[in-house]
Amino acid sequence: MRSQGKTIVFVPTMGFLHEGHLTLLKTGRTLGDDLILSIFVNPTQFGPNEDLDTYPRDLGRDLDLASRIGVDAVFTPDRETLYGSNYQTYVNLENLPRHLCGLSRPVFLQGVATVVTKLFNIVKPHIAVFGEKDFQQLTVIQQMVRDLNFDIRIEGVPTVREPDGLAMSSRNAYLSKSQRADALCLIRALETARGMVTSGERSAATIIDAAEARISATPGTRIDYIALCDPETLDNVTVVRGPTLMALAVTVGQTRLIDNMILDPPDSQGL
Ligand code: AMP
User: Fold this and answer.
1) pTM
2) Catalytic residue (choose from 18, 21, 99, 126)
3) Looking at CB atoms within 10 Å, which of 4, 36, 189, 238 has the fewest?
């Protein structure tokens, strides 16, 4: 593809494709000539007590969806190919992993940065597309690409949601019918926060308290974090002055879900 002068667009995933992934692929289609999808459930981004073994997989269905979207190539390496014996090199960022998911999932962002580096070196894309659903992951990749001088443009795609607002995720397949209903507390908490900011509330603590109350009112949920932070550095803010990331991670039953939203005070528009 490169020798033919094609612009290569790359969408890395862990498979079990849903409309969120398909939107990344459809966006990718419009950005270049050839579209490459990877499907790899990356072991290095899962902690010892996480869901690596049970992570949902359906390669046949994924390949079918990919061909319908017009993907030009699918890369489905196995574990041995990417991490053979005596593997020992990892990519680590200094500050971004000290926030949000990095605190409760210590190996997650190192695993993501490492596998994305490897996939970039193997696939050699010109453009790579990631979802804003995993906002910290996107921030880490943008930082890593700048810091390590990857000659790759990173494109972010807004979160794709179910009609009732639940952010699409392969892990939603774990939810029972009642847990699926309970999972709406994430988007409801974000909407509560957005409403408060629109009506003039600026105190991060007050907004976080209200979001926490919204989630705690749903039985069977456990909050990992609710944070208001700078969308670039991910440092916590105490006062919402401009566009601010609200990010949360909540376990519903046994399933850990994440979601986020940029809260933009009306008076900061255009600043
Ligand atoms: P995953 O397979 O969960 O590792 O995700 C692969 C890519 O799809 C990542 O860039 C995710 O951010 C993105 N993605 C997953 N869910 C969504 C969603 N609901 N909306 C937009 N992008 C998503």
Assistant:
1) 0.97
2) 21
3) 4
Q: pLDDT tens digit string along 80-102?
A: 999 999 999 999 999 999 999 99
Report d(CA 256, CA 186) in Å as an integer: 11
Q: pLDDT, tens digit, for every residue of 18-58?
A: 999 999 999 999 999 999 999 999 999 999 999 999 999 99
Residue type, 58: D
Evaluate: CB of 168 within 6 angstroms of ligand 1: yes
Q: Which atom of ligand 1 is nearest to the CA of 169?
A: 16
Which long-range contacts link 165-168 to residues 24+ away (Cβ below 8 Å)?
A: 165/191, 167/20, 167/133, 167/257, 167/258, 167/259, 168/18, 168/19, 168/20, 168/133
For 3-29, the pLDDT digits (tens) are 999 999 999 999 999 999 999 999 999
State yes or no: is 21 an active-site residue: yes
Q: Is 259 in the pocket of ligand 1 (CB under 6 A)?
A: no
Q: Is the CB of 157 under 6 A from ligand 1?
A: yes
* Atom 6 (ligand 1) nearest CA: 13
CA 202–ligand 1 middle distance (angstroms): 30
What angle (nearest 5°) sits at the alpha carbon of residue 171, between those of residues 119 and 100?
70
Question: What are the tokens at 204?
Answer: 């991060």
Read off the tokens for 99: 């926030």
Closest C-alpha to 193, from 212, 207, 209, 214: 207
